[in-house]
């Protein structure tokens, strides 16, 4: 395995924090292909700040868009035409490090008026880590996302939950969808490299991400 896609059931659910945790804990390289919204900085900058990793652990964005909107609309406002076929996975690092690719929002986010992010994931064919809240409503969102991935034969490595422990919700999703529970990232009092590394060590197993 040379790459993993980190995507979510929705926007604002902690996907970037999970991607940062995995990049740090797995000694991986992070890539955000399309950045929508720059007023508050970029997700790449956020991951760098959270992990303390240097530039050798990051690949530059392919497209950087001004407004924090769906990429297709943000690109139109910037007068940019996104070419989905230009979104090709960067070559693996010379030392064989894993590439962590973070999507934008959920699976059905449009990149152009004709292409959704899930279409790009389908073309890449690399395993997906689905990030989901534990809050009310997540069963529906998670099962719909998993069904969409399977309809396109996109491989699913498993699901990462974010939030408070709600065992029945996590069990219900995993049993209905027959998907692997990779772990749960709890609410952290601080967000920094030490806290992310400790959370991974306590709640996840590296072999679940790189041992298959």
Question: Could you describe the 3D structure shown?
Answer:
The protein is of the alpha/beta class and 212 residues long. The chain has one domain (3-200): 3-Layer(aba) Sandwich (Rossmann fold), CATH 3.40.50.300. The chain is 36% helix and 20% strand. It has helices at residues 15-25, 43-51, 71-78, 117-124, 138-151, 167-177, 193-203, 207-210, and strands spanning 3-8, 29-31, 34-36, 58-59, 63-65, 99-106, 128-133, 156-162, 181-185. The strands form two sheets. A seven-stranded parallel beta sheet has the order 4-2-6-1-7-8-9, sandwiched between helices. Strands 3-5 form a two-stranded parallel sheet. The termini are close together. The mean pLDDT is 94.
What CATH architecture would you give? 3-Layer(aba) Sandwich
Q: Give a short account of the largest sheet.
A: 7 strands, parallel
Identify the strand order in the major beta sheet: 4-2-6-1-7-8-9
Number of strand segments? 9
Secondary structure class reads: alpha/beta
Structure annotation, total helices: 8
Order of helices and strands: EHEEHEEHEHEHEHEHH
* Structural Rg: 16 Å
Strand content: 15-25%
Q: CATH class, please?
A: Alpha Beta
Helix content: 25-40%
Task: From the 3D structure, determine the CATH topology.
Answer: Rossmann fold
The dominant shape is globular
How many domains? The number is: 1
For the termini, the CA-CA separation is 7 Å
- Tell me the name of the CATH homologous superfamily: P-loop containing nucleotide triphosphate hydrolases
The low-confidence runs, each spanning 5 or more residues with pLDDT under 50, are none
Mean pLDDT: 94
């Amino acid at each position: 395995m040379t790459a993993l896609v980190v995507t979510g059931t929705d926007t604002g659910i902690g996907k970037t924090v999970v991607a940062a945790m995995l990049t740090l804990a797995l000694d991986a390289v992070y890539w955000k292909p399309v950045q929508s919204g720059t007023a508050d900085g970029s997700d790449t900058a956020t991951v760098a700040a959270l992990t303390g990793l240097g530039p050798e652990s990051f690949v530059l964005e392919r497209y950087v868009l001004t407004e924090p909107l769906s990429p297709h609309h943000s690109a139109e406002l910037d007068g940019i035409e996104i070419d989905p076929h230009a979104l090709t996975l960067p070559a693996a690092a010379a030392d064989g490090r894993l590439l962590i690719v973070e999507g934008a929002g959920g699976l059905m986010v449009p990149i152009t008026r004709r292409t959704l992010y899930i279409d790009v994931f389908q073309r890449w064919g690399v395993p997906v880590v689905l990030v989901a809240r534990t809050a009310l409503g997540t069963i529906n969102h998670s099962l719909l996302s998993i069904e969409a991935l399977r309809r396109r034969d996109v491989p699913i490595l498993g699901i990462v939950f974010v939030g408070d422990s709600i065992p029945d919700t996590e069990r219900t999703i995993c049993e209905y969808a027959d998907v692997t529970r990779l772990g749960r990232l709890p609410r952290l009092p601080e967000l920094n490299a030490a806290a992310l590394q400790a959370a991974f060590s306590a709640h996840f197993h590296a072999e679940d991400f790189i041992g298959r």
